[in-house]
Amino acid sequence: MNHVREYRKQKKISQMELAKRIGVARQTINLIENDKYNPSLELCLSLAHVLGTDLNSLFWDGDEQQ
Amino acid sequence: MNHVREYRKQKKISQMELAKRIGVARQTINLIENDKYNPSLELCLSLAHVLGTDLNSLFWDGDEQQ
DNA sequence: AATAAATGTCATATATATTTGACACAATGA
DNA sequence: TCATTGTGTCAAATATATATGACATTTATT
């Protein structure tokens, strides 16, 4: 239940393009977008930077959002 | 360069106590505090919840902090 | 000073994130 | 309709996060 896909589409780039910019495999992006696994912090930080946002916006849901 | 240790000390709990509450090994906490590796997102989320804070406060440093 | 608690660290084992290559199918555009 | 691009997914291999047990050292606490 993260917001990676939304932010990626907002940037109008493909999974492959996003993967290339971050330096991971396309499958990694795909699996993260579909909540199939559990990325490392370093990868989350790269995603946030490349997508022009921050950790909370991508991965922190619910009530206690600041 | 995360802020786990600061928030843990603020809560006045040991690495062992924090590890127990989160359900990981004490070494895992120790290595994260000392930037020896790269926790999973799920673990980061647990840390944020148990420490009463959020992802950005623990792991998002620098300029673009919101 | 002595005892206990907290921390740093090592070595080995296991679970799982991530990679690579490939294929099928959907969507898009020529 | 054909070609292209994007996406979902599978299987096998590799890298690395995490666990377990142990020990040394530092930091309270008495």
Tell me about this structure.
The structure is a homodimer of 66-residue chains. With 66 residues, chain A is an all-alpha fold. Chain A has a single domain, classed as 434 Repressor (Amino-terminal Domain) (Orthogonal Bundle). The first copy, chain A, is built from five helices and no strands. In chain A, helix 2 packs across helix 3. Chain A starts with a helix and ends in a 7-residue tail after the last helix. The first copy, chain A, binds a DNA duplex (30 and 30 nucleotides) through helix 3.
- Fraction of helical residues of chain A: 55-70%
Cα-atom radius of gyration of chain A: 11 Å
Total helical elements of chain A: 5
CATH topology of chain A: 434 Repressor (Amino-terminal Domain)
Protein name (chains A, B): Transcription regulator
Organism (chains A, B): Lactobacillus helveticus CIRM-BIA 953
Pfam families (chains A, B): HTH_3
Domain HTH cro/C1-type (chains A, B): 4-58
Question: Can you summarize this structure?
Answer:
Two copies of one chain form a homodimer. With 66 residues, chain A is an all-alpha fold. Helix content of chain A is 59%, strand content 0%.
SSE blueprint:
Two copies of one chain form a homodimer.
Chain A: H1 4-11, H2 15-22, H3 26-33, H4 41-50, H5 55-59
Helix pairs in contact in A: 2-3
The first copy, chain A, binds a DNA duplex (30 and 30 nucleotides) through α3.
Give structural attributes.
homodimer; 66 residues; mainly alpha; 0% strand; DNA-binding; Cro/C1-type_HTH (chains A, B); Lambda_DNA-bd_dom_sf (chains A, B)
